[in-house]
Amino acid sequence: MDAARARKIADRIRQIVAEMLERRIKDPRLGFVTVTDTRITNDLSDATVFYTVFGSEAERADSAAALESAKGLIRSEVGRQTGLRHTPTLTFTHDPLPDTARHLDGLLAEAKARDAEIARRAENAKHAGDADPYRKPDEDGAEDGDDELPEPSESSERAGHPAK
Fold first, then answer.
1. How far apart are CA 39 and CA 47, in angstroms?
2. pTM for the whole thing?
3. CB contact at 8 A, 21 and 57
4. Percent of the chain with pLDDT over 90
5. Helix and strand tally (H, E) in the chain?
6. In 3-state terms, what secondary structure has residue 48?
């Protein structure tokens, strides 16, 4: 099956389900439901409808039960309006994306507050050690560490190393 056709049908199913929830489904358990996305298999046999519910966990559970009970009516309307030979089975899945986005926003705000606290502490801070940590030539023009090597000691001669 063509992926572009499957995408178009998925978009159409999303529109049909959203209209059905807004106008025709009168279940009191159905809360403020938003259809966020629809995905359909390439063989057009199964469609997954993602939704979000504004409210508490109890309202989310009530809305899930209302969607399950209205699944047959919604599926028959999808079949009628799409004109497909075989109407896809519908699966309603709560979309965790808004909850995840809210969680990430909270983490980013916390990180920003920590960065501001670190910047505030660092305003009057001074570096440990010298202001310029790089080596500089001495008065006689020799770099630090370029001094002559010390003469070998007796212990190195006894260890089998001749003195230079």
1. 6
2. 0.62
3. no
4. 35
5. 5, 3
6. strand
Distances (CA, A) of 132 to 97, 128, 139: 50, 11, 17
| Helical (H) or strand (E) element with 68 | helix 57-69
- For 7-12, the CB contacts below 8 A with 24+ separation are 9/40, 9/44, 9/82, 9/84, 10/38, 10/39, 10/40, 10/47, 11/38, 12/81, 12/82
Q: Bin 44: left if φ > 0, else alpha if -120 < ψ < 50, else beta.
A: left
Q: Average pLDDT of the chain? A: 83
- Bridge partner list, 40: 47
Taking each helix axis from N to C terminus, what angle separates 71-82 and 3-19, rounded to the nearest 10 degrees?
130
Helix axis angle, 71-82 to 57-69, nearest 10°: 60
Nearest-angstrom CA–CA distance, 4 and 154: 87
User: How far is 77 from 111, CA to CA, in rounded Å?
Assistant: 48
How would residue 55 be classed by pLDDT, with cut points 50, 70 and 90? confident
- What burial class does residue 40 get, using C-beta atoms within 10 Å of its C-beta: 0-12 exposed, 13-18 middle, 19+ buried? buried
CA 109, chain centre distance (Å): 15
